[in-house]
Amino acid sequence: MPGFAAIIGAAKSNEVAVKLVRELQRRNILCFLSGNVNGRSIIHQLMEEGVELGYDTYTVPFVRIR
Questions:
Q1: Is residue 57 part of a domain?
Q2: Which letter does DSSP use for residue 32 in this model?
Q3: Does residue 54 form part of some domain?
Q4: How would DSSP label each residue in 1-59?
Q5: Domain residues for 44?
Q6: How many domains does one find in the chain?
Q7: How far apart are CA 27 and CA 13, in angstroms?
Q8: 16, 43, 46, 54: which could join 11 in a potential S-S bond, CB 3.0 to 4.6 Å?
Q9: Is residue 22 part of a domain?
Q10: Cα–Cα distance measured from residue 53 to residue 66, given in angstroms and rounded to the nearest whole number
Q11: Looking at per-residue confidence, does 33 or 65 come out higher?
Q12: Distance (Å, rounded) from C-alpha 58 to C-alpha 32?
């Protein structure tokens, strides 16, 4: 594994969130996702777009998902 990234907060849009995470996944970089901005987080954005989260996909949320 070449590295890891911590993504805190939310992206400007769902499309930007997906693009960012897909690029990091393509490079096999483990992404730790956390935090929120006004109740919105990149975790929610990715879930809304149907992106699978978890260690298998290199995207690890650090909050409880409801």
A1: yes
A2: E
A3: yes
A4: --EEEEEES--SSHHHHHHHHHHHHHTTEEEEEE--BTTB-HHHHHHHTT---BGGGTE
A5: 3-61
A6: 1
A7: 22
A8: 16
A9: yes
A10: 13
A11: 33
A12: 8
The label of the residue with tokens 């992206």 reads 11
- Tell me the per-residue pLDDT of 4-54, one tens digit each, with 9 for 90 and over: 999 999 999 999 999 999 999 999 999 999 988 888 999 999 999 999 999
- Count other C-beta atoms under 10 Å from residue 43's C-beta: 23
Task: Look up the pTM and report it.
Answer: 0.86
Closest CA to 5 of 13, 20, 16: 20
Residue 66 lies in a domain: no
Q: How many Å apart are CA 62 and CA 66, to the nearest integer?
A: 13
| Interior angle at CA 53, CA 49 and CA 56, nearest 5 | 135
